[in-house]
Amino acid sequence: MTPALPQPTQDERTMALLAHLLQIFTGFLAPLVIYFLRRQSPFVAFHSLQALFWQLILAAAYLVGTVLILVTLAADHGTGKGPSGGTIAILVVYWLAMFCTSLVNLGVAVYFTVKASKGEWAENPLVARWARQAAGL
Prior knowledge:
Blueprint (H helix, E strand, L loop, with lengths): L9 H17 L2 H10 L3 H36 L7 H33 L10 H8 L2
């Protein structure tokens, strides 16, 4: 049986919600700063690490997508004929994927902002296990 998790204070709930909310504007920077400022609080550490790990996953996905686009453009540039229809289609798909990923990020951030503001130990299924381990929970 899992031990009962402590009820967060209002200050802890505020810091946790800021970690989620500010990731929309700062990526991984705000959750990282909040984690280092308040890592002694299990609630804040857990929520800020979830936001941090989520942003690192997004950054890795953006990096991989950007490298693939650059490779595609470089290969197409070597033909000397300008961008092909396939390259243009790939660019459109890439742009749509980036747009949709941004919308998902916004939704995830708002969802966990609300959960943190209520003092809930809500778990992002992709990163919660890592955050629990890193926070020592």
